[in-house]
Design goal:
Length: about 120
């Protein structure tokens, strides 16, 4: 009987973890845009049939499997790569400030920039 109780408790913990990661329309998430290995921030536009449509912060849209997104977890100190001054070159740094889509970056080379989340990504 003790073993059965442990299995039930374990199952409840797993179910709780799955429901905690469930995403709904309007949630901010990170999506692996076109499966390229980089995670970009966006908002869920639609959830239907195991698929999620993400409107990325840079304006692109993509429909992916519900399992292909992660909860948005960026915070001060998170390592990111950003498109410095929107010029097309990506540089590593850390988030120094964050207010909605406005993000402050302290680059590894010492430069600093305030930009938009749509110009940043994580691995």
């Amino acid at each position: 009987m003790k073993f059965g109780s442990i299995l039930i408790a374990t199952g409840m913990i797993v179910l709780g973890a799955v429901s905690a990661s469930a995403q709904t329309t309007g949630d901010w998430v990170l999506g692996n845009y076109k499966g390229a290995g980089y995670w970009f921030p966006g908002v869920i536009d639609k959830v239907a049939g195991g698929k999620i449509t993400i409107r990325y912060d840079d304006g692109d849209k993509e429909t992916v499997s519900i399992n292909a997104v992660r909860p948005y977890d960026w915070m001060i100190g998170t390592k990111v790569e950003c498109n410095y001054k929107g010029a097309g070159n990506w540089y590593s740094g850390k988030i120094a400030s964050l207010a909605g889509e406005k993000i402050g970056i302290a680059y590894d080379d010492g430069d600093k920039e305030t930009t938009k989340t749509g110009r940043c990504r994580t691995k």
